[in-house]
Amino acid sequence: MLKELSDLGKRNREQKLGEGKIIHNALKDEVISIDLIINEKGDFVQFDVLDKITRPAEALSSKKGKARLLLDKAEEVLNFVSEDASEKEKKGSEYKHSLFMEKLHEYEELKELQSVFLFYNENKKKGLDTAKKSFYEIPEKQRNGNIAFRIQGKSIRLHEERTVYDSIISKFEKEQAALLKNSDRICSVCGKSNYPIEDVPHGMIKKVPDGQATGCALVSYNESVFLSYGLKGNLNSSVCSNCATTYVEGLNWLLGNGKTQTTDKGKEYFKYSNRKNFGKDTAMVFWLKDGNDVAELDLLEEPNEAEIKELIDSIFTGKSQASNINTNYFYSFTLSGAAARIFIRDWIEQSLTDLKKSIASWFEQIRIMQFDYTQQKMLPYYASLYSLANATQNSKESKDISASRTSVYLWKKALSQAAVPIWVLNAVLKRIRVDEKGITPERVALIRLILNQNSSKGGFTVKEELDHENVSTAYVCGRIFCVLENLQRAALGKNINAGIRERFFSSASMTPSSAFGRLLKMAQNHLTKLKNEKPGLAVVLDKELGELISKINSFPVMFNLEDQGRFAIGYYHQKQESFRKASENKELREAVEE
After folding, report:
1. What does the pLDDT look like over 4-40, one tens digit per residue?
2. Maximum distance among all alpha carbons in the chain?
């Protein structure tokens, strides 16, 4: 995983170099929030609050005990604290400012910095002291960003001068060469010894779900317990400084890459390109080795029947002509924040061919047939992945509360055919029993997915539509329950306070023996009433009920979890079939239409 992240970081670097940007391990893109403008004599001129622009600056793997050259926070640059700051805060600011000045003096030979030294020393009264007073005038919410120096009349900032960059790079390379001279260890990521392996932080990963705002570490050894074979801290990881920098850059890019889009109502939102969020505490990042987009991933969120059919046909009939489909690779992993660290929950690595096959198979597994009243026929229904995850939740709950754990397992199933745990089936069935929406196409599709993956017979033992050959007792009982409901509605009308679905579905799907005894007795009363009012419909429903009852020997005392799932699917299939038949029978339509 680290190797592929590092390769991604290196690939992004090559692209930036092609665009003429300065790229080096000694430099890192940093956000600039405020320009501190001075003149050539070091006099303070003004502060210019910016809209958080990003420019290369000296790279620091960690800010603890360090300061950045010419670009840092107000504490470092100005020794600034609020007027009501405590003594501890004031001492902390003084320490940070001293680090900033020490770093500045390391580059005192640069003529470009002479105005800055005047600002702090010879012209301090008109420089630093005046700047500190003026800084109070900036709104408090805008004071927290990085401050950069700029000479009046110039557009380029001092830390962006080419000579400053060259000095930072030269100093960095000398330090690296000294470290490399005393070590011949091979990097565990690139397999080379071109860069030293150091006991320093590898860099912070930003925008980690449920992680610290300042960033989290992917690789970190910071306790004495991690001493082994004479290695201390991050020396244990055996990751060279170059690979450490590039894997951090790669992961930061994955977590933040995207663009601002606008909804139909004109509202702006940020859409990630290489990240999927699962609730507030979990996210999945993904990428291709050659950098191309995977359009099929969008189908998982917004299914399109025509595009899904084209995908399935191209994969399972061998029509795909993609030139790189066998050589390109897809990578993905799910991560969560855990205090200052990152918790990796899985890792997927597979060819683009296998990925497309897996997604095509996913759609075949979740496909469910649904009667369309507009077209008056059965049509395939493909639920979005997130609607399937929400199927385990109460319909009144916010989507933000929907189980991120379920989403994680469904994405793994869709991308790599990993198994969905059986507890998801239990969650769906629980919601069917207690939720006012009861059985929905999404819940049925999810049940079908889990039952088929757990089938010892292989293949799709639970089909997408009514299966007359399926003689499973639970499946047939679900169909019987649907017919009994139709019979009740035909006899008593649809406006019933609490029909048998509301009163008996839970017991019938869990303890059928006791429930169906009462239901069949009620059915006889309904049939008697219906024969007097609608004899033709009574004959149709009575025949249908008799045929189904003849398929089972007896009603079991209990159904296990999987049989409860088969019951629900049997009910749904029979209901959709009832809708189809009702399109040809007016009396039946009045009974079964919702």
Report:
1. 999 999 999 998 888 888 899 999 999 999 999 999 9
2. 109
